[in-house]
Structures are given as structure tokens and as C-alpha cells.
Design brief:
The structure is a single chain. By secondary structure, the chain is α/β, with parallel strands linked by helices. It is built from 23 helices and 22 strands. About 1% of the residues have low confidence. Pfam families: CoA_binding_3, Polysacc_synt_2.
Length: 607
């Protein structure tokens, strides 16, 4: 129906309702009166004109009544009330009296018929048109404003695949009540029972204020059901219009394992980054590229992206230029090998960076066990070259990315990172540059991490391979790790090893189970296979050894390790002689030195 046809239809319907209202009101007051009196005539004409006048004034004829709600009912109330008031005034002026009883009854019948005529289509639509048989029965977690908004959208959206059948909320004052005709069936601990009784196929978590711990608790209850669990979109995406309220996203493993974000000291970071030249090694890697993204938000004068792989450097360069095209940041790319000291010196000389973030490293444990000489070249010699070049050109702050595997290392990778930490602390003692290291655990979603591997195995139908049922690891998200690195640079005084309080470690087998459930699969169908620990692996990781522990936080959730003894002569020996050592001997040498085995150190020095 066209807009004009719709307007004329509503005007005709309302005219009929107004005239019928006067007739019924008069009949109730004066059942024996047959003739049309002057009073009734005045009331009828005034009501008719006033009703249409106020209807246009309050845009009553422009409302989409299939979505009518309280707001529309309030407008109807205003239109009819003002119409009756005007009619009473006109009657007083014309007849010097007001028929209060007729007008009161007219107001009530008028409100009933106009409201009923408008809400009839909404009621018919909601009752008969909204529930196709193939809709998935959905349980909404959270009966607050967000949950109610989601339920209303799903009820009104005929094309939505989901239909809400119950709420879950821990607020006891809401339980056993109905919201939008949907019952609040119980609390979070009752999710399993509710899902079974109501044959729930989908669960949507609608509590934007949840922290990671609370979300984890709710998800564990949802995981006991066979329903698919999703979340409402991020509030900022809703507000910016990127997504609608019924475009739900799957719960990600980052939602469960990532912790609440650390608040950055924006002023201190801005002081040492804004309008400065910043150089990032390994800028194409997972951590390096995220550091570049985070640093760019503080508007450095120039950002030098240094890396060995041209494709990854090109990718992050294009991304940053597009994301920050409205700024004056100069993005510079340099392809360089960390073992080429002369090239690093030249790069430092050309750009004169104020801050260097050293993220380049070999980090894959099993691969480095098979190629320990490559770990030495990249993680030890490469770090020494970058640090020495930074020192020569008086860089203000040098931040090295380390790992929890450097604590009591059992692998070549961990050993080389521990020795690289010692080099960094040594350079801090002999240079005007502030040298620090930042140590953290496994990063979710980085290349070579367990998450992408598990996802690929699940896509292929399983099984998911876990090395040991008791294997545990600390986890953090890439943005969180990058923020820690940036904050460490602002806190640096020189020589520190910064460590993040990473909370509780996570069992890898539990991570695998959660990931299977998150992808909507059954654990028994996909399966989990234990393959045995790989060379160099530990059952658990540590962030500080007993000699390094400093119990006080220097910043919320950030600790600093005590400086342990440095073995620079022994490291120089390894750098000079690693090519002549067979792989097993080299591996043994690295592990002994990194673990500070005194007898071995004396033997090594004597050699």
C-alpha cells in the first residue's frame, strides 16, 4: 500500500471510530434519546476535526504499527486526551455547558478503539507471522537492558533464525517473571537443566559488563549443554552501526583465556613515543606487527619497520598506511638480516631512532631443538648486533621481547633467550642507552601457537593432538602482550626484566576441549589424542626463578625481576665457537650456561 493510500485509510478508519464513539457514549447515557441533539452534533464535529488535527500534529498516521510499543500508546493517549479537552472547551463556548459524562465515556471508548485498531496488526503479526517452524529455540543469558533488546529484536525480525524462549539471570527479583512474554527460567547454575527441559539449540550471552572470569564461569555452564553458545556484538560496533544487535558472534577462545585489559599510563607512553622515531625489529611477526599498530596510536614522528621477510613487512606497511592515513606518521620499511651488523649500524645511522623494540627471534621450540645453531645466530648474535648498533647511535630506550621459557630453560630456544637477556642487561651497564627485557607467556593466535593448530585439526574432523594431559601454560592475547611491551618502555630505568602477572595457568587439554565446544562440535566426535612431550618441552612454565623474584608490583599487574649474575665471557665463547660444535654439544652448552650451572661455567671459562 502506498503512503498516501495508507493515510486515507487511517483517516477513514479514525473518522468511523470517532463517530461510533459518540453514538455509543450517547446511547449509554441516554438510551431513550433517538434524535441527534445540538450537543451531540457539536461534540461530533469538534471531536472529528480535533482528532485529525492532533493526529497530524503528533504524526500518528506516520507510525509503523507492526512495531508499536509503549511510545506509540503514549502518543495515542495524548491525541485523544487533547481532543477531548478541545471538545469540552468548544462545547462550553457554544452551549455554555459541558457534558462531562458523555465526554468521559467517549474518552475511554475512543482510547480503546483507536488503540485496539492500531495494535491489532502488531498482535496479529507477533502471534501468527513471527514463528516459522524451523527457528532455533534460544536461551538468552542476562535479562537486563541488553538481553531485553536482543529478545525484542529477535521477536520482531521475521527473518531471524533464532526465537527466544527463556531468559537466565542470577537476579532473584527477576526470576519467575515474564519479560516480553518470555519467562526468566532461573540462574546461571541452572543453565544445563533449563536447556534440557526447553530443548534449547542456541544460547546467547547478553551481558556486556562481564569480565573474563565471569564469562568463563558462564561458558563452563553453557558447555554442559549441546547448544551452540554465542555473544552479542561489541558495544562499540553496535554504536557505530557496524553490526546489528542480532548479528551475534561466536565466543572466541580469547574471550575465555584473555584477561581483563591492563590500563596503560598514557601520559608516560606519550612522553617517550609521541613525535619520536621508533624502530621495530621483526615488524612483520605476530608481536612485532601488533607493537607497530599500538605504537602508531601514539603518533610517533616515524616508524621504521625492520624485518627479514619481505612479504610480512609489505603487509604490515600497507595496513598501517591505510589505518593511519589521516596522520603525519612516516612509515619506513627496511629489509635486513640481524646477523648483518654493518647493515644494522647503517639503519641506525640513517634514522637515528629514539626507541627500539626488538621483537625478532626464532621462537619455535621443537624446530630450534633440531637447529640450535640457528637459534644462536638469530636469538643471541642477532640480539647482540641490534643492541650494539643501538648503543653506538645512542638510542634512548631499547626493549627486548623475551619469554617465560627463558626461566630454568629446558630447550634451546629458552636457553638462547635467557642468554640474550643477559646480553641486554650487560649492555645496560656499559651503555648510555636504557636496555630492558619484557618476559611473558604464550600468545594466543600467534604463528606457530597451539590455537591455529587446534582449529585446523577440528576443521579436518579431528583428532586434536595434545602432548600431555597435565601440560599447562600461561596465555595472553597479542594486544595485551604488545601493550605490556610499550608500557615497559615507559617504565624503563635500565637493566630490568619486566614480567606480567599472568594469572592462573591453563591446562592445554582444557583449552582443546573448550575450542572444540566453541566451534559447535562434540568432544567425543572430534576426539583428543595425546602424542607425548616434544624435545625441549616442560609440563609447566615459570615467569621468574627463585633468584629473580621481586614481590612488589611496580605497576598494576607488572612485576620486575632482580638482576642475576651475567656470564658475558661464556656467551662470547659460544658466539665464537658455536659453528665448530656438533648440535648435541651446542645444545648441552646452551642449557648448562642458561641454567647457571656453576661447575660447567668454570670449566667453560678455563677452556
Amino acid at each position: 500500500m502506498s503512503y498516501r493510500s495508507r493515510i486515507w485509510l487511517l483517516i477513514g478508519l479514525d473518522s468511523l471510530i470517532v463517530l461510533s464513539t459518540i453514538y455509543f457514549s450517547n446511547a449509554l447515557i441516554n438510551p431513550s434519546l433517538q434524535a441527534l441533539t445540538l450537543s451531540i452534533f457539536v461534540i461530533s464535529i469538534t471531536l472529528l476535526i480535533s482528532h485529525h488535527l492532533f493526529s497530524f500534529l503528533f504524526k500518528l498516521y506516520k507510525k509503523a504499527w507492526e512495531y508499536a510499543s509503549i511510545g506509540e500508546l503514549i502518543i495515542i493517549f495524548k491525541v485523544i486526551t487533547y481532543t477531548i479537552i478541545v471538545t469540552a472547551v468548544v462545547q462550553q463556548l457554544v452551549q455554555k455547558q459541558i457534558d462531562f459524562r458523555i465526554l468521559a465515556i467517549t474518552w475511554m471508548i475512543h482510547l480503546l478503539l483507536i488503540g485496539g485498531s492500531r495494535f491489532f496488526w502488531r498482535i496479529y503479526r507477533d502471534t501468527y507471522l513471527k514463528h516459522p517452524i524451523n527457528k532455533k529455540r534460544t536461551l538468552i543469558i542476562g535479562a537486563g537492558s541488553a538481553g531485553t533488546m536482543v529478545a525484542r529484536q529477535l521477536l520482531h525480525n521475521r527473518d531471524a533464525e533464532l526465537i527466544p524462549v527463556a531468559f537466565v539471570d542470577d537476579n532473584v527479583h527477576k526470576q519467575k517473571l515474564d519479560i516480553l512474554g518470555i519467562p526468566v527460567a532461573g540462574g546461571v547454575k541452572e543453565i544445563e537443566r533449563i536447556a534440557q527441559e526447553l530443548n534449547i539449540a542456541n544460547i546467547v550471552i547478553c551481558i556486556p559488563s562481564l569480565n573474563k572470569k565471569q564469562l568463563n564461569h558462564i561458558f563452563r555452564e553453557c558447555a554442559k549443554t549441546n547448544a551452540k553458545t554465542q555473544m552479542i556484538p561489541m558495544l562499540e560496533d553496535l554504536m557505530t552501526g557496524k553490526v546489528s544487535v542480532n548479528q551475534f558472534r561466536d565466543v572466541q577462545v580469547e574471550d575465555l583465556l584473555g584477561r581483563d585489559a591492563i590500563e596503560l599510563d598514557i601520559s608516560s607512553i606519550s612522553d617517550y613515543v609521541s613525535n619520536k622515531v621508533v624502530l621495530v625489529t621483526g615488524a612483520g611477526g605476530s608481536i612485532g606487527s601488533e607493537i607497530c599498530r599500538q605504537i602508531s596510536k601514539f603518533h610517533p614522528k616515524a616508524l621504521v619497520l625492520l624485518g627479514h621477510g619481505e612479504n610480512s613487512i609489505y603487509t604490515i606497511e600497507m595496513e598501517l598506511k591505510e589505518a593511519f592515513k589521516q596522520t603525519e606518521i612516516e612509515f619506513i620499511t627496511e629489509i635486513a638480516d640481524l646477523q648483518d651488523f654493518d647493515k644494522l649500524l647503517k639503519v641506525m645511522d640513517i634514522y637515528q631512532p629514539h626507541v627500539v623494540y626488538h621483537a625478532a627471534a626464532h621462537k619455535h621450540v621443537p624446530l630450534m631443538e633440531r637447529s640450535p645453531e640457528e637459534a644462536v645466530k638469530n636469538n643471541i648474535i642477532g640480539t647482540k648486533n641490534v643492541a650494539q648498533a643501538a648503543s653506538v647511535h645512542n638510542v634512548e630506550t631499547f626493549v627486548m621481547i623475551s619469554t617465560d621459557k627463558a626461566v630454568n630453560p629446558t630447550s634451546v630456544m629458552g636457553s638462547t633467550k635467557r642468554l640474550a637477556e643477559m646480553l641486554i642487561q650487560h649492555f645496560d651497564q656499559i651503555s648510555s642507552t636504557r636496555f630492558v627485557a619484557v618476559r611473558f607467556g604464550n600468545v594466543l593466535g600467534s604463528r606457530g601457537s597451539v590455537i591455529p593448530l587446534f582449529k585446523k585439526q577440528i576443521q579436518n574432523g579431528g583428532p586434536v593432538t595434545v602432548t600431555h594431559p597435565d601440560m599447562v601454560r600461561y596465555f595472553m592475547t597479542i594486544p595485551e602482550a604488545s601493550r605490556l611491551v610499550i608500557q615497559a618502555g615507559a617504565l624503563a630505568r635500565g637493566g630490568e626484566i619486566f614480567v606480567l602477572d599472568m594469572g592462573e595457568p591453563v591446562k592445554i587439554v582444557d583449552l582443546a576441549k573448550n575450542l572444540i565446544k566453541l566451534t559447535g562440535n562434540n568432544i567425543d566426535e572430534i576426539g583428543i589424542e595425546f602424542t607425548g612431550m616434544r624435545p625441549g618441552e616442560k609440563l609447566f612454565e615459570e615467569l621468574l626463578n627463585k633468584n629473580e623474584v621481586h614481590e612488589e608490583q611496580i605497576y598494576p599487574k607488572i612485576y620486575i625481576g632482580k638482576t642475576s649474575q651475567l656470564y658475558i665471557e661464556e656467551i662470547d665463547y659460544i658466539i665464537k665457537n658455536f659453528k665448530s660444535l656438533d648440535r648435541e654439544h651446542l645444545r648441552e652448552t646452551l642449557l648448562n650456561l642458561a641454567n647457571e650451572r656453576v661447575e660447567y661455567q668454570k670449566k667453560l671459562v678455563s677452556v
